[in-house]
Amino acid sequence: MGTISVYLHILTHLIFTTAFEDGPVGILYFINEEVKLMSAAISAIHRAVQLTSRRWLNLQEYQSKKLMSDNGVRVQRFFVADTANEALEAAKRLNAKEIVLKAQILAGGRGKGVFNSGLKGGVHLTKDPNVVGQLAKQMIGYNLATKQTPKEGVKVNKVMVAEALDISRETYLAILMDRSCNGPVLVGSPQGGVDIEEVAASNPELIFKEQIDIFEGIKDSQAQRMAENLGFVGPLKSQAADQITKLYNLFLKIDATQVEVNPFGETPEGQVVCFDAKINFDDNAEFRQKDIFAMDDKSENEPIENEAAKYDLKYIGLDGNIACFVNGAGLAMATCDIIFLNGGKPANFLDLGGGVKEAQVYQAFKLLTADPKVEAILVNIFGGIVNCAIIANGITKACRELELKVPLVVRLEGTNVQEAQKILSNSGLPITSAVDLEDAAKKAVASVAKK
Ligand code: GDP
Ligand code: MN
Description:
The record marks 98, 166 as: Important for substrate specificity. The protein has 15 helices and 20 strands.
């Protein structure tokens, strides 16, 4: 789920359920707090616009290339294989002068990656189909680590076996939904193939942008200008412009948030070809892109979200370093908001919901601390139906059994809070108590800054 939709989802949830969830016991107490939460919620939505989501649907290269070729974009002929034998057969069937074998993972930088089988490089060129088989054997079932993966890499389940083409020039082309432009923008560089971030840093004048009016669509003059900026000349220029136009139309049609082609290349025979493809999709468009979302390869999904669901916990990953453990969607959003206001960034939030059991609290801590990004935990629980003493017992149990290594800031309020505070302070554990939300956020942010 995208961050914005998370916030919207939470806001809806807040409006329709929070007041009722906490029942008649908490409701009077809530009214004042609720007003504060609402304003926090709205500013959180505004801020969410600046947040980058980690959760746009991402497809494998072979899936993206299928969409591209179905829409008139030029890619190489290819097959997909999930065993070394299939890869060998595919290589023979291609009957090509040269073959390129590519590990399929949802991360870039494969060319320079390393497998835990010892094999170097997630992209290999060879003329011999037998070599394809041998290489595939060292790819499938092994982890490939690249600059964009976690250290241990990502397991390769499939390889792409494609007809290799000679490349005379590698350029870079991307189409993004860009917030600062309030719409789509083409980004290109004649210096492709390599790390585009490096080009942007060392030669920013070699990065070209073309802002597109989403209502008018891409103009031919814009596509031509980008093609020229990418260094395509003669007949190649109009061919590149045509490919750029088709890529833009595809981008729009499939509700993509990003289409990145690196290299967007040129062959000595005079063809413009998309040698690589990375497409991200707007998760809010799932309802009208059912075929695309059905391709979602869940094997690389965050296992933590699936794990949380098992215990009836809602986990949402964000990209900061403070884990938030809360009950109720409104409080989740307000907690995120107040962390931002105090200069911090939430790593995630885990919503405990109503009717809490001690074991769930334990599981929640286990999940939160499993995320290596987490440098502090902020517990912000408002006890309506939820009994704070149960939470406190769950927290102390989890702290002891999991040997918690990161600072823990706890703010509890509501039913049975005195008892809860006693449990925490008598535990002898290094738990920082906070008196209110603001205090909790300040303490959590400070504990991270100290490290
Ligand atoms: P990435 O490393 O994950 O971005 O994977 P790419 O698909 O971009 O492949 C890495 C590099 O391999 C490219 O930048 C090209 O230089 C090279 N490459 C990929 N396909 C071909 C091909 O068909 N022919 C040639 N000559 N080089 C290729
Ligand atoms: Mn690439």
